[in-house]
Design brief:
Four copies of one chain form a homotetramer. The first copy, chain A, has about 300 residues and is an alpha+beta fold. Helices cover about 15% and strands about 40% of the residues of chain A. Chains A, B, C, D: Keywords: Hydrolase, Protease.
């Protein structure tokens, strides 16, 4: 008999939407892979297309030129390019696109409080523990550290603040099998680890949370980025516990339970990454990152 | 930059279906819970309804009588009863149903070999590691132990056999946070752990695998059961590495990546299980479990 | 090439000893074991004999009566009774003793500061990680939480305080394989887990620390107890992060790197504990536990 | 109440010693460290001196020249050089020595069988789990895989063979926190990991086992080496599950419970290793490594 105990889930009716915040980004991504044997690989590098992300001038080049297949996952909207490399050799991918996003900038007070109420079935899976987010072990810790905050929104804010002050960002300090448990013990990691810990702590408090990869404006050093979203007040709110990006300036690529779901490249057979270039630049020359103070007052949402 | 390496995925065209094997089961499930404070809980005890499971005489009783909500997950087909217990007290649930299943009984030779070919996007998530199935750490082990078997089907058979001879079934030996890694080290567990290890090993060999809970004919001791399915030859094939049930005699309740997705009861707030009764009986008096020898020759599928 | 990085170890000359604090305890311990096959077992239930623990009226009874062997470990001073149970059956052990301890009660200011200086080789092993105290993974966490405190003594005090406010004492919440990493993640445990976490954090800050089992005055519920010692200012100072006992009122049984070294019973073959009674009572009727306030000002040492 | 269950320990009287096998080795070790702040460090690079290892022409040079302290641990015999680097800068260590070892070469039949008998207290700690050898979790696995072998000697042989066929030697595949559990799951590692797994499995079968570092004849690539010893038949027998060295051609440096105890360098403060050279050459030009076949018949002991 298996039984999972979660805490009270509070939801709410969706408030009226404030006007969206349009922004445009120029994105370039180059990847060079070497295949030593026939290999099929799936890239997840194209931004999602939805009511908050409009793509123009999209250009995907593969050298050597060859047919390849595009897929869009009907549930998540994640977009894949599937390449069948039948010959050993070097495969160059160059992807360019301009993305117009329309994130909502909500003042904290606009996020409705969440009285005990209707349960949202479609976020249920995002309350459950996943490979790198062992929320099932973190109930006590989360309750002790963040249980006193009155609303889910304040709990998430406190979690982001706690992570940012207790975990060190150290490039190369973790591997692809590092999980939120490891990060709690070792207290260091990269964007992926910060997101995993945030997700695990939110789920432990019964706040649905998911992981997404993205292109972040002027990320330094340039790379793919990873952040997380929480379902609070009837919306997905965006958070970056590393502080390296501003949530309004991240273009979404893949969304999933954790990093297991949204690898940049999933290869069926061995494939070596030789070189990677990622550039994401806001086209508004006056764009400036939200400050830490602003992020205490303002939430960003795509829904 | 995150990158996942999987091995070659082989798929195939769907073969012609042999006639299905109809069976009828009488199921009774009783659960008594005590709530000490207001609590919302979701039960996942109703069998799925699909082309292989037909339900009749379904009866769900809740005492004290009160309205409750039924949900069916549109993606998985899992069926939930959501109960809002606003008053502390004891809640009795009694559920009865007759289920007619039509499993396919396929001889191993009917499962097509899987030449390198088209990728099936909808099973992609079932190749990725999950909370209790850390396939990302098992690549070497799986390749060394099972890599030599020529086809995915033979690999799965070898995995089931290996688990059944290397892991001891010991009631009470594990907890709700035990994972496939733990089972590999401690070499004991219950049905949930056997299924998790099977799934993790299959995924590590690039064979999509998922977890399901079910009602198993004359399971001893009576309880909910857990098994796993693998996507081989264009179908979901059913496996029970514990040997306690016969895969043709398991009625499916919930399907998911692992046990995290298919708890019998997910409560938002504390809820105590006081008593549980589970009965599942094949209505054909002549039914007899498939023998170990038969299970070397025959696969069961619901798809 | 293996290399371990520790932080600066500060030691000092031994200060003059203040007069010791004599206390007398009446201890009774009864253990009933069932052997189902021949088994040799080692009990570690007798208090140590040293300049701080004087034993009188010691009485060890074994029923059925049979010869058994006493050992004292020359390095640790731990005392063992080795029993060879050649016949299956029930073995009753009854142990009684009166112990006079002479703990030192030191005001914090009497513990010398520890300027950079001579390295003490005999405590080196107590800086290294052990089975249940993975200090090698806790360097960042310990430095971030406790690095700011100026002296090793203040660091240990802060560690004890942090554990006592961040970890819940929950009987039965852990098992014999639970380690300090688990406790950091799950935030609950019993005396053994509190001691392991204290030791791991101290070692991570380069403060030698060890584990000891003992009889604690009026422990509630009555059981064997576990605490830890740190090597600070040229002495072993005693700490109980659970707050259940007063360090001046704990009679030492076994000392080791962690619980692995000081099991109450180590059996070579299967042996079942049927019943256990442990009583430890200070003979001074006026004895009162040190208060939390006092324990902020006063340290207890046996050396 | 803490209780440890071990299996039956079999010991024996010490048989008459066959004549020892004298061998001479020329060892050179160079280490360059950079200190960026004052740091004290302990090197454990000098071979032990005992009845089986005689040292001549020992020469330890430190540049810049400065006084440093030598220690020998009275219990283990491990030899340390303690260097206090008060100034930042580069520290060059050059160590040279000729070692004459007198290992015993015993045919398997000379190792006495071990009837149930007297318990050896001084090896008790080497039955307990340690940081990297979690034997407390491996009881089932060890019993299932190796329980059928009749004697401890045959069990150890089977363990060494199993490790060598189930674990891949992959340089750089593990880190300083990798343990025997990880190696069982990931099935790859370096000499340290092979030794840890061997030790853990032996202890799980109640065979005392310990770790040692050494200089191995013509190790390729040249480095410090790590192997393990088991207490069987009244002696410490030497094993190298990696097969990279021949146990008769390894000069012992440090002995401990596992790698935690015998780091080449333990620094109190941050110290960076810039360069390392290790050379160990048997001086007998005719020396040849024991073959795999010989190692099925012959055991090497230093005691």
């Amino acid at each position: 008999m298996q039984c999972t105990t979660l805490r009270i889930l509070k939801t709410s009716t969706l408030p009226l939407l404030p006007p969206a915040l349009p922004m445009r980004f120029q994105i370039t991504c180059e990847l060079d892979y070497t295949a030593t044997a026939p290999v099929i690989f799936l890239l997840n590098i194209r931004p999602k297309i939805n009511s908050h992300q409009m793509l123009t001038d999209e250009k995907f080049t593969l050298v050597p030129q060859m047919p390849h297949v595009q897929h869009t996952d009907p549930v998540t909207g994640n977009r894949f390019d599937q390449i069948t490399a039948q010959l050993p050799g070097v495969y160059h991918i160059r992807y360019q696109v301009i993305v117009e996003t329309s994130a909502l900038k909500l003042s904290m007070s606009e996020i409705p409080d969440m009285p005990l109420g209707e349960f949202e079935l479609d976020v249920l899976a995002l309350l459950y523990p996943s490979r790198y987010c062992q929320s099932d072990r973190l109930g006590n810790l989360a309750a002790k550290l963040f249980g006193e905050f009155e609303t889910p929104l304040k709990q998430v804010q406190a979690i982001v603040k706690w992570i940012s002050s207790h975990i060190d960002y150290v490039s190369g300090s973790t591997t692809s099998t590092t999980s939120s448990e490891d990060t709690l013990v070792e207290r260091q990691g990269v964007c992926r680890d910060f997101a995993h810990l945030g997700i695990a702590l939110c789920r432990a408090l019964n706040i649905p949370a998911r992981y997404f990869t993205g292109y972040a404006h002027e990320l330094n050093p340039p790379d793919f980025h990873a952040c997380f979203e929480t379902w609070v007040g009837g919306r997905w709110l965006l958070w970056d516990a590393t502080g390296l990006s501003s949530p309004d300036a991240v273009v979404h690529i893949g969304t999933g339970r954790d990093a297991a779901d949204v690898s940049v490249c999933t290869s069926f057979g061995y494939l070596q990454l030789d070189r990677q270039t990622v550039i994401c630049q806001a086209l508004d020359p006056d764009y400036r990152k939200l400050s830490e103070e602003e992020l205490q007052q303002v939430c960003i949402s795509h829904s």
